[in-house]
Amino acid sequence: MQGFRISPYLQELMVVVGVNEVYASGNQLLEQLLRIPVSALAIYRITVATAENVLETTLYQPVSHSSVYAEVDGSMLLTDDGWQEVKLGRVFARDAQSGRADLSQSAYCALSAFL
After folding, report:
1. Exposure pattern of 59-74 as b/e (b: 16+ CB <10 Å)?
2. What is the DSSP letter of 103?
3. Cβ contacts of 96-103, under 8 Å, gap ≥ 24
4. Does one domain contain both 104 and 79?
5. Other Cβ atoms closer than 10 A to 17
6. How far is CA 12 from the centre of its chain?
7. Domain shared by 49 and 76, yes or no
8. Contact 108/90 with Cβ under 8 angstroms?
9. Of 79, 87, 77, which Cα lies nearest the Cα of 19?
10. Which element (helix H / strand E) includes 66?
11. Distance separating alpha carbons of residues 65 and 44, to the nearest angstrom
């Protein structure tokens, strides 16, 4: 991804860590594996920028009568092993004629650091 003074390979590693780990512990993991300092904020920025780029350049085009929206969020859950981060994605369509979102047909995808 352009605009960052980080090699494409390191950016790819940062995104992998960013979508699988809590940012704060993800930077510790990268530092331990690569022996270079990586900030949690940098992992966050690269991950978000990559996600935005993927959404802009996706091969899938919405059908002419609707628009497709994607939402992503994360949350912390208390488990037997302590607090764990869970990330959730949701995709739904908006009908161009009515202008209303059709929330009755959503697709969800979840990822947990403890799975």
Report:
1. eeeeeeebeeeeeeee
2. E
3. 96/64, 96/65, 96/66, 96/67, 97/65, 101/69, 102/66
4. yes
5. 23
6. 13
7. no
8. yes
9. 87
10. strand 66-79
11. 34
In this predicted structure, what is the pLDDT of residue 112?
Answer: 60
Q: What domain range includes position 70?
A: 60-115
Residue 2, helix vs strand vs coil: coil
Q: Which pair of tokens denotes residue 32?
A: 């331990």
> For 75-98, b where at least 16 C-beta lie within 10 A, e where not — what string?
eeeeeeeeebbbbeeeebbbeeee
pLDDT tens track for 47-103: 888 887 776 665 555 555 466 777 888 888 888 888 888 888 887 776 666 656 556
> For residue 30, with 0-12 CB atoms within 10 Å meaning exposed, 13-18 middle and 19 or more buried, which class applies?
buried
Q: How many residues would you count in the chain?
A: 115
- CA gap 100, 83 in Å, rounded: 37
Same domain, 66 and 114: yes
Question: Total structural domains in the chain?
Answer: 2
What's the pTM?
0.49
